[in-house]
């Protein structure tokens, strides 16, 4: 089986949710990479906070693939500590996804597995290389947006302006040109890939920062409409789905409480 090799998380976002061992804990328990009991429903089970963070693109990818999943939310530090102590977290961090009898950690490993399993990472090495490059770009932009609510209040306006500047001068021009040069409905090849799903997620996040951010990008506007209307994605975008709302102060407070930050 050919695997995708794209990293999802930018360095700045990875440092946002560090592993936090219990006070006085000198060694970590043995990692149990395979589920002891398995998920009896057969559905992937996602372990994270009740918010976007680093789990949201995993939710997007599963939804795009038409895969139903369950979620277990951490609300107290004890919830994280339990996962750490029972050996569920290889590096003592979330997100963690139970799937196919495994307990997968590290966002890029989880995303690579899902993209490969559901044939969303291209038909050959050249397509996969393009997908990887496009996903890395949206990863950088989305990382800036995800980190924004955790920044000091007196820097948010400046950082929001930087996000808009980067989106409209560095990232979106690349995807606009890619669509023009490729001449197809999708970024790579002639079928949906992880890159398309990731770009749509990034577009919608950027529009939450500035609603008219796509005003100078007509091909991206059309792309947004096409990909949003793919049945599985359209369903995920409907109210009541497992898609999470923009990060708010409540989510920030939960994360700060659990990680003592």
TrEMBL record:
Q: Report which reactions are catalysed by this protein.
A: RX + glutathione = an S-substituted glutathione + a halide anion + H(+)
What SUPFAM superfamilies would the database entry show?
A: GST C-terminal domain-like, Thioredoxin-like
State the Gene Ontology BP annotations.
glutathione metabolic process; xenobiotic metabolic process
Q: Which residues form the GST N-terminal domain?
A: 42-122
**Gene3D superfamilies named among the record's database cross-references:** 1.20.1050.10, Glutaredoxin
Q: Which InterPro entries match?
A: Glutathione-S-Trfase_C-like, Glutathione-S-Trfase_C_sf, Glutathione_S-Trfase, Glutathione_S-Trfase_N, GST_alpha, GST_C, GST_superfamily, Thioredoxin-like_sf
Provide any one GO MF term from the record: glutathione transferase activity
Supply the CDD domains for this chain: GST_C_Alpha, GST_N_Alpha
Q: What is its EC number?
A: 2.5.1.18
**Where would I find the GST C-terminal domain in this sequence?**
124-247
**Alphabetized UniProt keyword annotations:** Transferase
Classification via Pfam families: GST_C, GST_N
The record's family statement is: Belongs to the GST superfamily. Alpha family.
Descriptive protein name: Glutathione S-transferase
Task: Tell me the organism.
Answer: Ficedula albicollis (Collared flycatcher)
